[in-house]
């Protein structure tokens, strides 16, 4: 179990997938089994949560970038572009 948890820590995957409560529960199990000390548990929980947060931020950034690239490739109009066109149309209609 500790080996698996260490692999997750190395990859950052476990920390990103698990919630804080799940991480705490896993670490508690390690303490009960004597695989880590109570003193180590707090630090381990902190590291896992921090890695998870960083990985989530990185994943969010990658996803946003990929979505943006896909939208560009599809040649779709953005909401901002649509709003600008609507404003221009309204201005042109007022001139008439």
Ordered list of secondary-structure elements with their pairings:
Blueprint: H1 2-11, H2 13-17, H3 20-32, H4 38-74, H5 79-95
Helix pairs in contact: 3-4
Describe the structure.
- This protein is mostly helical and 96 residues long.
- 85% of the residues lie in helices and 0% in strands.
- The chain has helices at 2-11, 13-17, 20-32, 38-74, 79-95.
- It is rod-shaped.
- The termini are far apart.
What is the typical, i.e. mean, pLDDT?
A: 82
Structural class: mainly alpha
End-to-end distance, in Å? 74 Å
Q: Beta-strand level of the residues, as a percent range?
A: under 5%
Helical proportion, percent range = over 70%
* Helix and strand run: HHHHH
Count of beta strands: 0
Contiguous runs where pLDDT drops below 50 for at least 5 residues: none
Number of helices: 5
How many whole angstroms does the radius of gyration measure? 24 Å
Give the biggest beta sheet: none
Shape: rod-shaped
Quick structural overview:
The chain is mainly alpha-helical and 96 residues long. 85% of the residues lie in helices and 0% in strands. It is built from five helices and no strands.
